[in-house]
Amino acid sequence: MTVLAPVAPATTPAERRRTTAEVWIVLGLSLGQSGVYALVNIIARLSAPTPLAEQTATLNASQSDRSLLDLVYQLLGIFFAVVPVVLALYLLSGRASATWAGTRRRIGLDWGLDGARPGRDVAWGFGLAAAIGIPGLAFYALGRLLGITVEVQASALNSAWWTVPVLILAALQNGLLEEIVAVAYMHERTRDLGWSRLWFVVWSSLLRGSYHLYQGIGPFFGNVVMGLVFSWFYTSRWGRHRVLPLVVAHTLLDVVAFVGYALLPQEWKDALGL
């Protein structure tokens, strides 16, 4: 068993200011930026003459009518969306007592390193996906019924040989970005700032809900609940500060949503109100 050297938290006012600034920079380049845009978007939706329930949010839209050019755009979008993940990991490993491998072990992103346990991570991931997936569908259906959720089109890519692989990559990108930044990175940095577990869980969950506001009020609350479950699990004796089960769960949920939507016949979508 590898023993990790403890990473000293930010203790001086200057260190805390620097850590706080770093957090805002990382969020400004990633999920925080998405949250601000989503807030403006929901204000625009609520103030529009068309009722919220009659509006549509499209995920994974085509960027070009030319298939290969569309593929290039999709891959570039996925690549640059993952850059903030690398930045967060780089910053976490930047302290004198931290290393790249040690940081990966600390947050449970250690597949490929000695002592990794992919089987258990995958099992927990499937369990979390099942626990979140069914209530998530219920939240969406209830939101549509109450008129507080827009119609979400999970995929609008043109049908091509690369459609399903790209949707799987997009799902993995979402899992890596949201779970590493909103949970693992935020936990490390809020702990550096002396926050309690409760405040971390609340902050992480509200952050997750914020960047889903563009889908309506229902998805905001649904994703806050997902955030509560995921951040609590991460800090629990079962989660053991391992982010990979969360990445697996999130990726599975998005693969089912993206690929399932893309492959579902149009008449089925109409019948289900999708």
From TrEMBL:
Q: Does the keyword Hydrolase apply?
A: yes
Among Pfam families, the record links this protein to: Rce1-like (PF02517)
Mention one GO molecular function: metallopeptidase activity
Q: Where are the transmembrane segments?
A: 23-44, 71-92, 122-142, 220-236, 243-264
Q: In its keyword annotation, does this UniProt entry include Transmembrane helix?
A: yes
- Pinpoint the CAAX prenyl protease 2/Lysostaphin resistance protein A-like domain residues: 161-255
This protein's UniProt keywords: Hydrolase, Membrane, Metalloprotease, Protease, Transmembrane, Transmembrane helix
The protein here is known as CPBP family intramembrane metalloprotease
Protein species of origin: Isoptericola peretonis
